[in-house]
Structures are given as structure tokens and as C-alpha cells.
Design a protein that fits this description.
The relative contact order is 0.09. 10% of the residues lie in helices and 38% in strands. The strands form seven sheets. Strands 2, 4, 5, 7, 8 and 9 form a six-stranded mixed sheet that branches. By secondary structure, it is mainly beta. The protein has helices at 10-13, 22-51; strands at 55-58, 63-66, 72-79, 85-90, 93-94, 102-105, 114-121, 126-128, 132-136, 142-146, 153-157, 164-169, 174-178, 183-185, 199-204, 208-213, 218-222, 238-243, 247-252, 257-261, 277-282, 286-291, 295-300, 308-312. The N and C termini lie far apart (75 Å). Strand 18 and strand 19 (247-252) form a beta hairpin. It contains two helices and 24 strands.
Length: 329
């Protein structure tokens, strides 16, 4: 290469580089680089797909209303890495033998009412679906409740209610859910719930009401002096609710418990690590949680053995408690 080339512009030098087409070399280099970038992107996407948990959902309506003797079926759809297996849960209790994509009941009883979830498992891990609620109505339009204040039996007849599927009585108030998902009752602020048409359960406290919707969300109304009706932001996948005097409890589909409202006696201070819960109950100044293994965890005031205690319970002999098949795992 002559020395005068060193003093020329780059464009004028290119044709003299020993016969090489520098432009073509650069173009090929860019093409190879882009090809390698594309391979890397594909590899990253593939790696992410292989390390993502499966997706799972229960198809159809998230709120079914049945009557004794009816039949129903819930079908799950899932996608994942490799074969996908299923495990069904009823009110957070594992249903033995229910490992197919469809769960069905040929003749519904009152015991079939509640929240159903399904866990999908693939080669990467497991994922729990959002809940679907099955409500069992009998066509009743009236309920009986009594008030702690006057200890007098009273009868409730709500206008327009043709099939009550859930009801709750508090201190002088009663609220019920109709089969069509609407809510009514004697609570002073019921008008604010007129837009709700997908309720599955209600709970009444001293001066607040909780409504559980079919999408697993909770609506609260009433006095906010203690925050009992102020539902925590982001609360979701709830399968059961309970209203205490001045505090509230929510049971989630993963077996954990969320509490809010008055905490003067520790009633809203959920014990650390509490899990595998299948039912909750909020009392005056204490809270209870029933676990899948049949034990009851209590916290707050009036707990005999301290602020937190665990009590062994025989589910088979306890009225209204169905024996579980195992915890959510």
C-alpha cells in the first residue's frame, strides 16, 4: 500500500484494499450480528417459557346457583411445560381422587356449596386458579335471626327475594344474598350496594357489612371509625369472609388469612406463618381459624392460653365442619 493512500479520504481508499469489497464485508457482518441477536432472543424466550409456572382457569361462570338434586360440572383449562396434572379443592380442602380437568357432581346437596379452585402442575411448578363459587338455594324467601341486644326471635322478609342463598345477622341488622347476586337487608346503608349483582356471601358486624363477590373481591360499607369496612387494597382471591364486632377477616384461596379493622386486643393481628386455613370466624375481640388438619388457631382477647393458641378439634364430631382431605400444597 502506497503512502499517499494514508492521506486520502476513507471512501477513496476502499477500492484499493487489496481487492476486498469492504462494503460487502460490513454488510455481511451486520447480517451475521442480527442473526445472532435473533438466536439469542429466541433462546431467552424459550428459557423464560420453560421456567414460567403454568396458567390455569376454571371455564364458564364464576358463580353457579344450584338446587338440591341438580348436577353441575366445573372444567379447568391449563397450559404449561410438558404434561399438566390437576388437583381440585373445595373451600380450600383437597378433594381426594379429583385429579381430572373436570369436576362434576351428579346430585347437589347443601354440602356442595362453597368455593372451588383447581391447582395445575407441570414440570416447572404449580399454579392455583381463581375461585369459582357454587351456591345452593332452596327457594326460601324468609329467614330467622335474633338480636344480641333484645334476645328476641325476629323474622326477615326481604322484598323481591325469591331464593336466598346466603345471609348474615349482626347487632340488630340482617343482610342476605339473593340467587341473582343482589344484596338486600335492614342495614342503613344498603342503597350503596344496589349495583352489586354478583354477590356470593355476606357478613355483618356491629356497624359494618362485608360482601364477597364472585370475582374473589370484597366490598365493605358502614362506619370507618375502626377501619372494619375499609378493605385492604389489592385483596383478591378471597373464598370466605367474617365480620367481628369492629374487625374483619378474609380467607384467601391459598389458605392464608387477612385481617383489618380494630386491633385493640390483637384480633386483627394474624399469627405469622398461619397457613392451610379452611374457615375463619371473627368474634367480638378475638379471631379463629380452622386448619385443614383439624386444629383451630385463636388470637386476640379471651384466648385462654395467651394471645395465640392452637386447639385440637375432631372434625368428624364437630357440627358443621366437614373433614378435610389435606392442606393446599
Amino acid at each position: 500500500m502506497s503512502s499517499d493512500i494514508l492521506h486520502r479520504s476513507p471512501r477513496s481508499v476502499l477500492p484499493h484494499l487489496s481487492g476486498f469489497n469492504v462494503v460487502e464485508i460490513i454488510q455481511r457482518g451486520v447480517s451475521i450480528a442480527l442473526f445472532l441477536v435473533g438466536l439469542f432472543a429466541v433462546a431467552v424466550a424459550s428459557a423464560r417459557a420453560q421456567t414460567s409456572l403454568p396458567t390455569v382457569a376454571i371455564q364458564g361462570a364464576s358463580r353457579l346457583v344450584e338446587h338440591p338434586g341438580d348436577s353441575f360440572a366445573l372444567t379447568a383449562t391449563a397450559s404449561g411445560t410438558g404434561p399438566v396434572t390437576y388437583r381440585w379443592y373445595h373451600d380450600n380442602r383437597l378433594l381426594a381422587g379429583e385429579t381430572g380437568a373436570t369436576l362434576s357432581r351428579a346430585s347437589v346437596t347443601m354440602a356442595d356449596a362453597g368455593a372451588y379452585t383447581v391447582m395445575a402442575t407441570d414440570s416447572v411448578g404449580s399454579q392455583l386458579s381463581a375461585p369459582a363459587f357454587v351456591l345452593v338455594g332452596t327457594g326460601h324467601t324468609r329467614g330467622v335471626f335474633w338480636s344480641e341486644y333484645d334476645v328476641i326471635f325476629k323474622r326477615l322478609s326481604l322484598s323481591g327475594f325469591t331464593n336466598i342463598v346466603s345471609a348474615s345477622q349482626g347487632y340488630g341488622y340482617v343482610v342476605a344474598v339473593n340467587a341473582d347476586g343482589t344484596v338486600g337487608g335492614t342495614f342503613p346503608q344498603m342503597a350503596s350496594l344496589s349495583a352489586v349483582n354478583d354477590a356470593v356471601a355476606v357478613a355483618v358486624g356491629l356497624n359494618h357489612v362485608l360482601v364477597l363477590k364472585s370475582n374473589g373481591m370484597v366490598v365493605g360499607l358502614g362506619s370507618d371509625s375502626t377501619g372494619a369496612s375499609k378493605v385492604p387494597a389489592g385483596l383478591s382471591n378471597v373464598v370466605a369472609i367474617s365480620a367481628g364486632t369492629l374487625h374483619s377477616l378474609a380467607l384467601k384461596s391459598d389458605g392464608t388469612v387477612v385481617a383489618w379493622g380494630d386491633d385493640s386486643y390483637g384480633e386483627a393481628d394474624v399469627p405469622a406463618g398461619l397457613s392451610n386455613v379452611v374457615a375463619v370466624s371473627a368474634g367480638g375481640t378475638f379471631s379463629l381459624a380452622l386448619k385443614a388438619d383439624g386444629t383451630v388457631v385463636a388470637w386476640g382477647n379471651q384466648v385462654a392460653t395467651g394471645p395465640v393458641s392452637t386447639i385440637a378439634v375432631d372434625p368428624a364430631s364437630a357440627t358443621g365442619i366437614l373433614p378435610g382431605e389435606g392442606p393446599i400444597a
